[in-house]
Amino acid sequence: MIDTNPDSAAATQQEISAEIAAIETGYQRTGIEETQPRLEYAPYRSSLLRHPTKDLHHADPEGVELWTPCFSERDVNPLEADLTIQHAGEPIGERMVVTGRVVDGDGRPVRRQLVEIWQANAGGRYIHKRDRHPSAIDPNFTGVGRCLTDGDGRYRFTTIKPGPYPWKNHRNAWRPAHIHFSLFGTEFTQRMVTQMYFPGDPLFALDPIYQSITDQKARDRLVASYDHEVTTHEWATGYRWDIVLTGGARTPVETAGGDRR
Ligand SMILES: [Fe+2]
Questions:
Q1: FRET partner for 42 with CA separation of 20 to 30 A, picked from 48, 78, 91, 181?
Q2: What is the pLDDT of residues 129-158, one digit of tens each?
Q3: Dist. CA 224–CA 154, nearest whole Å
Q4: 63 C-alpha vs ligand 1 centroid, how far in Å?
Q5: Ligand 1 centre and the CA of 261: distance in Å?
Q6: What percent of the chain has pLDDT above 70?
Q7: Section 35-44 average pLDDT
Q8: Minimal CA–CA distance to 99: which of 113, 115, 86, 110?
Q9: Spacing, Cα 260 to ligand 1 middle (Å)
Q10: Angle at alpha carbon of residue 73, lines to 194 and 117, rounded to 5°
């Protein structure tokens, strides 16, 4: 996405990390739990210019709910959940399965709802025209897939583990490996766009997008678990990630300030 701050490239990782640490200390002092990313989070430079500055208007929830799109098996081919079979050859990288349940705030399955993902390839490169960093495009990997949840709210994708990639927030800025998720849910209020991360990523501490969620418990809700039960013999590693669309344990979402990187 566009780097909206011309000075941002001048900041070093050390400076950004110091800002992150100062905000973290301030957050710990308040003792008030936050469960979602901050709209304005200075270390994430472009967030400063891209979030609502006025209070939201209340809408009639019944009217809003009617707008929810409805998808069926006729709209989504089951093969679209496999990102490794979209081209003539096999993509390069670690083949893996990502699966989990989509539930509402009461733990009820959100059934037959659309889940879409997009991601970089194993080298951290997006197909997107504006991604010009020197890492190879994989001709056998587009990085886009979708599926419907089943009767138990479960989704399942076969894909390639994405690599970390550089971005222009500051000098030597790198995003932790992640997969973007979009979910519609059954009501408009459940609509969610977010990112799933991988356990133990060394870039977590350095990444202003991940750190814009100030609470560790909320951050943890964006990190998948390695699951050997999902891993398949001589074929793919397996990760499990559950998504909560509503309620106090709601999975943190990207807001108007997020840039979908
Ligand atoms: Fe991304």
A1: 181
A2: 888 889 999 999 999 999 999 999 999 999
A3: 15
A4: 33
A5: 4
A6: 91
A7: 92
A8: 115
A9: 6
A10: 20
Tokens of 79: 């093969």
Q: Quote the CA–CA distance of 96 and 152 in Å, as a whole number.
A: 22
Average pLDDT over residues 41-59: 85
Lowest-pLDDT choice from 55-59, 221-225, 250-254: 55-59
Query: How much is the pLDDT for 3?
Result: 45
In one letter, which amino acid is 140?
N
Cα–Cα distances (Å) from 24 to 12, 18, 59, 60, 87, in that order, read 18, 10, 34, 37, 44
Label residue 9 by pLDDT band (50, 70, 90).
Answer: low
Active site residues: 126, 165, 175, 178, 180
In total, the chain counts a number of residues equal to 261
Q: How far is the CA of 56 from the centre of ligand 1 (A)?
A: 27
Residue 255's contacts (CB-CB under 8 Å, 6 or more residues apart) are: 36, 37, 39, 51
Alpha carbons 130 and 170: distance in angstroms, whole number: 18
